[in-house]
């Protein structure tokens, strides 16, 4: 992409220096060279950076760099083929490559890596339990799965600091676990039990905890949570604190108008929004190739003047490092970051969707990139941080915890509208609770000298 800026003046323009869109922080070193699976260097993805064309004094070419930390760069295309009742999605491209290795993390310790593996495993086993509870008729409403996305959800949430905020979406139940909710909380919520986080007044994933865990409840209207997280970052800054506000959006939701408006606001205000775009290839039953024309959704960061990064969403180390560095930028007051995590949603949109529209070859390709299996192999056979026996004990511990939480959730009572007087209100009122500043007193902008008070109200102008 080359953008040329013309001038009506015939006066030669002075050659300008090369100015990158988002210069690297002085506190951090540049990211390591990106390598392919075979270890050979791969150039950074480039699209138009600021320089003056030597051959034309009146034109200017701008280009921007989108770092891509993946160790493989698959090339395939999903399209519609056939006619009438035989119309179906097909895929073309080379899907025979073996899964890439896990990239070493610059920040994760041994203890953190083992804990991350446990969160991912608990995330998956809990969703299997939820599916079984649904089939037993114990779930109220539907169930949404993050199969194949556990590494993205858990690793990104683990990168948050204690004062940072999380705004999960329907597939980020692993992030909820990392942030302190139990599998019991989540299962009781899906079953609308009286002791669930919303006391049976809602089901699915619509719950949070702003008091202790800094978690905002998911919003069904996709993209809306981005503005909420930007507002949280703004509120914290007014209290003298720079925090990171992490939230997610899918490849489909990323095209909504509110996503653009909220991200633009965060960019202009330099708020600590960290947006993970989970490009899982399907917006319900519509493939990414039929949703947008850009090659990578991270390219859209260019329009906002913020950094965009591409990672392999099935590699927890890549996700953690990118999110960690985005949070550090937020803490320094340097503004938002857009992280595109590429992977595939390995189940349908929800439990009612069998996803028969997905080509079988594509399912097999991404099944070979299972984040849990690859991360277990990485910890055992590559890093030597776990033995096979240690891993068996970890799995057994997860199973024991999950079984206890499942039994407790099933035994929990359903809400009784006649006797439940503890949580009566649907809407908050003054007698409910007082919301106080979390980080400190709100600091107002100093009044300009000579301003004696608020601006006088002017009469409305009526145009004829």
What features would you describe in this structure?
The structure is a single chain. By secondary structure, this protein is of the alpha/beta class. It has one domain: 3-Layer(aba) Sandwich (Rossmann fold), CATH 3.40.50. Helix content is 30%, strand content 12%. It is built from 11 helices and 12 strands. Strands 6-7-8-12-11 form a 5-stranded parallel sheet, with helices on both faces. It has a 3-stranded antiparallel sheet with strand order 1-3-2, with no helix packed on it. Strand 4 and strand 5 form a beta hairpin. Helix 1 packs across helix 2, helix 1 packs antiparallel against helix 10 and helix 1 packs across helix 11. The radius of gyration is 25 Å and the shape is globular. The N terminus is likely disordered.
Q: How many DSSP-defined strands? A: 12
CATH architecture: 3-Layer(aba) Sandwich
What structural class do you assign from the helix and strand content?
alpha/beta
Order the strands across the largest sheet as they lie in space: 6-7-8-12-11
Rg over CA atoms: 25 Å
Net shape? globular
Give the oligomer, counting copies of the same chain as homo and different chains as hetero: single chain
| Biggest sheet features | 5 strands, parallel
Task: State the domain count.
Answer: 1
Write down the overall mean pLDDT: 85
Under CATH, the homologous superfamily reads Thiamin diphosphate (ThDP)-binding fold, Pyr/PP domains
